[in-house]
Amino acid sequence: MTDLLVSRPDMADTIAAMLSPDPLVGSLSGLFLAAPRRTGKSTFLRTDLTPLLKSKGKTVLYVDLWADRTRDPGALIFDCIRAGLEEHSSSIRRFQKSMPVDRIGILGFSISFKSAEEFTGTPSDALQLLAAATGRDVVLIVDEAQQSLESEDGISAMFALKAARDAVNQKPGADQPKLYLVMTGSHRDKLAALVYDQKSPFFGAQVRDFPPLGKEYSKAVADRVNTHLSEGNRLSVDELDQAFQRLGRKPEMLIECLRDLVLEPVEAPIALEAIVERRKAQMEAARRSEIAALSNLQQAILRRIARERTDFAPFTAETRHALAEVNGGRMPSLGAIQKALDVLREKGFIWRPGYGAYALENAEIVGALDL
Length: 371
Prior knowledge:
InterPro entries: P-loop_NTPase. It comes from Paracoccus alcaliphilus. This protein has a 5-stranded parallel beta sheet, sandwiched between helices. The longest helix has 25 residues, at 268-292. It contains 15 helices and 9 strands. Helices cover 47% and strands 12% of the residues. The protein has 3 domains: 9-209, Rossmann fold, CATH 3.40.50; 225-288; 294-368, Winged helix-like DNA-binding domain superfamily/Winged helix DNA-binding domain (Arc Repressor Mutant, subunit A), CATH 1.10.10.
């Protein structure tokens, strides 16, 4: 059942309609969509939205910033732009016949177009060239865009994309091609860091919730799994959808539970409910075990971050006094607090949206902290 794919054409049509200069429903400033991990967002982008946009004559570039966590997110973005230039190099060559262009240089890489002169430019130049040469709207989809915040080059890349957006979209003429940016993320607060204040690259844009897979997915899965169950012991769509909801509407987790279901000797509805609860308990136990392995100071800091959220200030006298309770009655040094924060970041419990600011990496951590 790993190959089970349910198309979402209506959702693709809705998002495609938002990629327009229409002042009422359009998203020239960028479309920012947030959804939890493993809820089908990336699959939708690749298999539903991208083909639809291409069928409408748009040039689509796609990059997943989690595709290679060992590489800098800025480099992944620039590689995506380079791939777009390479894919449309014939159109670019035709467009440049009257221009002295030999090479497009973008922060460390270049593309040869076999002419006499040489040209170097920025990512903004490259995206402007791509739009002008193809004569088509360009849609750049950055999946897991919040990962750009993890490096200086990643943040710089986002500012470069903003500059490209403004340069392309502010050209006079209603028939000029546009640049649309679609940014998706599995962490709403992180994605919001790209838009929420005046220092953010996309200040003023809005983060929207990406709709999860609905009952149509549950029906498709029920139809499929029931072929493996005996007549009279099958799942209704409602029963399966309730299990899907309990699992956070994460298709991979649902499929894993259904694999276990076909081996259960009891009635399917009862067995599925038990399997789902067991799976949730196992995940909760794993998170609690990871937290229990932290030092007392690290756990105390993690709990304060969970309680105080954006008000958390790690190095104030008030925080240090509060942490003395788990530090033998002594206020921990600034260095000890910083080291604890670094460990929490390395282990994936927290992230740093800005200098001196920290937030939970995953909202599910709160449930395991017994606050």
